[in-house]
Design brief:
Rossmann fold, 18 helices, 2 domains
């Protein structure tokens, strides 16, 4: 144990100059000097007396925890911490009356000062972000520490050094509430005490589709989801677009337009250049004016969603949806949102992030996994599946979408289950 602590502390020491340069750069770039202050443990302008901190790594986690936070704040004083500027902006949009701060760097003196300033009694971490020093100091200070919607990297237990560091840190968690039994088994492989680990379910099932007002639906020049004949690629990662290139060309030839929402919008220009190099027209959602006519991009062109918060507007009228990440190391992104909209879904082979959810849907023919096949290339396999989807009639597509929707709605009370558990264990009031 001593060696592991020493190695981790030494690594932090080596990284410190680079981390300082990074946080200074981000503070200047985003014009938010609270980023450097908070990350170094300096907190000011805390408006409320808070007893609970809910940590959401970034924008995606803030969105995922939204419904849980709404329930907890009914009877508790809560602040939100995040690691990123986009996460903070989103948290402030959703919860303007709450304090939102940046999470501290994992140095003992920084963490101690950060926690001392907040004087919180409970710390709830959404999904899994394990910082050894932070977790240990929470333990020293008798702060109740709980991970919700917990998931963990596949095969982490095989990395001996990381396993020992994480296992020691996780001993300071009162409870680890996993999003599935599949994730619970991965935690158990780390050697965590089973009595502290529970499988509650995936909080992302609490997602509520965006309601578009009737008058907005009638404004066809400003609403971007009026066409019902497009293929939506949601939350894509490199190399999703490259792998789908031939399939996209075929869709456009057959007058089925394509909408792409990169998980990281800074990739938008690179994606656009790739298509333009082979003669495919590209439009950016950010360039759309109030007089933008949907038909301008609906045939033989790709629309790239390069703005935050607009992906959900396109789920309702997509013909079918590919959820990205399945060809990346990161793994498939959130399949629950499109399922709740009742959309037929395709994903790539790396499904570990949503393994149990996807396998349950697959058994009911509610999702299609594009498996790796030794006899054909990845691109050929994708083309084969897209052709099959393109040839399906409306009735079959609707049926597949309904299966996905009905399955997801079975878990619509998931937030209540989490809140009840946290109340029983006195993590929240």
């Amino acid at each position: 144990m001593f060696n592991n602590k020493y190695i981790y502390s030494f690594a932090l020491l080596i990284l410190l100059p680079f981390l300082l340069i990074y946080i200074i750069f981000i503070s200047i770039k985003k014009d938010d000097f609270n980023f450097i202050k908070n990350r170094l443990g300096i907190l000011n302008k805390i408006n409320n007396t808070n007893n609970i901190c809910i940590h959401c790594t970034s924008l995606g986690e803030v969105n995922g925890a939204k419904e849980l936070i709404k329930e907890i704040i009914k009877n508790n004083n809560v602040l939100i911490s995040t690691n990123t500027n986009s996460g903070k902006i989103r948290a402030c949009e959703l919860f303007p009356d709450l304090d939102v701060v940046y999470f501290p760097l994992d140095y003992k003196f920084i963490v101690s000062n950060w926690l001392k300033s907040l004087k919180i009694k409970s710390m709830i971490v959404y999904e899994t972000e394990i910082w050894p020093n932070f977790y240990k100091i929470c333990g020293y200070e008798n702060i109740k520490l709980c991970i919700v919607n917990a998931r963990i990297q596949k095969n982490l237990h095989k990395k001996k050094f990381v396993k020992k560091i994480y296992a020691e840190a996780l001993e300071n968690c009162q409870f680890i509430l996993c999003k599935s039994n599949y994730e619970k088994k991965k935690y158990l492989k780390l050697g965590i005490n089973e009595k502290n680990i529970f499988s509650i379910g995936n909080l992302k099932y609490a997602y509520k589709p965006q309601v578009i007002k009737e008058e907005d639906q009638k404004r066809k020049s400003t609403e971007f989801s009026n066409t019902k004949n497009f293929f939506l690629m949601a939350s894509t990662h490199d190399p999703d677009e490259k792998n789908f290139l031939q399939a996209i060309q075929e869709l456009l030839i057959n007058e089925i337009s394509v909408v792409i929402a990169p998980r990281h919008i800074e990739r938008s220009k690179k994606i656009a250049n790739m298509f333009r190099d082979i003669g495919i027209s590209v439009h950016f959602l950010s360039n759309a004016s109030k007089n933008y006519v949907l038909g301008e991009w609906s045939i033989n062109a790709v629309l790239i969603i390069d703005t935050f918060g607009d992906l959900s507007k396109f789920y309702s009228n997509a013909r079918y949806v590919y959820v990205g990440g399945g060809y990346s190391r990161r793994g498939v992104q959130n399949i629950i949102e499109p399922s709740i909209y009742g959309k037929p879904i395709l994903v790539g082979p790396n499904i570990d992030n949503f393994y149990e959810e996807i396998m349950s849907l697959k058994e009911q023919d509610g999702i299609t996994v594009i498996e790796d096949v030794a006899s054909i290339s990845t691109k050929e396999s994708i083309v084969k599946h897209i052709r099959e989807f393109r040839n399906l009639n409306d009735e079959t597509l609707i049926k597949r979408g309904d299966v996905a929707k009905e399955h997801s709605l079975k878990f619509k009370n998931i937030v209540e289950k989490y809140v009840e558990f946290l109340k029983q264990k006195k993590v929240i009031s």
